[in-house]
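Work package 3, deliverable 3.1, input record:
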Amino acid sequence: MLRSALFRDLELVIDKNFKKIPIACPVCDILIVGITDHQVFREFECCEACKTQWAWPNKNEWSAGWRPSAKTVAEFRKNRISVPSYTMRGKNAYNKTN
Ligand SMILES: [Zn+2]
């Protein structure tokens, strides 16, 4: 009885075009974050950085299943990981009063 009251106004919607998005890019294995990465994944099945680096310049090969070598991806990951993901650093970064 309680259950029917809780779910009375819910409607089950099945989207046949729903595509599950992984937590990390299947190419570079870096987290997929933000709406842009999600939109890019739906079209290219990779994150935006991988799209810009490989998928877009090699669009036909990419569509046919080509992917960069593991060595190339490892070098790309090394460069991406070295880029700071936020700008506030230092012991007083979070205690500024001005
Ligand atoms: Zn990627």
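Residues 1 and 71 are 59 Å apart (CA to CA).
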